[in-house]
């Protein structure tokens, strides 16, 4: 992966060349935080956990990991029932799901087979939310039900890179949550964080931070076939070094 730093009148711009792009979904392509938080608030209240439940701790994690954090003694059958209840609750919140400005255009600029989605949501929830905003996902994606360990474990992003037939170090991860940033970095990818749901301090593990996804431009290098991305950064490892 090659990168270049440029000073402009408005700040620092980064230009990088990669072989593939691995997108998180919630907080990057679509906004569904309010609906998710309503689902988790109902779940926590129903199980008497309102006083100790941390909503922000659910961001970027598989639902099963959050469930077992608070109810560690559940049997597999009980865990499956909790997941099914949350899936049903989430389906009722689809009307509040919206695509971030620029998300559809960015995806449309990437050739097929050069990008995929690695999300902590289930495959069913992912496809339902993307359908609600008019985004067609690739045939092969990585949802929570395809992996045994969720973010911040790197399994999902390692699988995503493998689906593209690329080495992790040749892929860019685009994330919005600390758990996803750690997963991408541990997998060996470079990580671009979008400041849509967390503070800049919480995103410091990323290589670069951008204000919004609509600030990312992408073109295909006709000579090398590399994906060339350019974006203004709020903070970068290069800048802080």
Automatic annotation (TrEMBL):
The highest taxon in the source lineage is Bacteria
Alphabetical list of Pfam families matching this protein: Hydrolase
GO molecular function (one): sugar-phosphatase activity
Coiled-coil region list: none
Which InterPro entries does this entry report, sorted A to Z?
HAD-like_sf, HAD-like_SPP, HAD-SF_hydro_IA, HAD_sf, PGP-like_dom2
What PANTHER family does UniProt report for this protein, alphabetically? FRUCTOSE-1-PHOSPHATE PHOSPHATASE, GLYCEROL-1-PHOSPHATE PHOSPHOHYDROLASE 1-RELATED
Q: What's the name of the protein?
A: Putative phosphatase YfbT
This chain's source organism reads: Granulicella sibirica
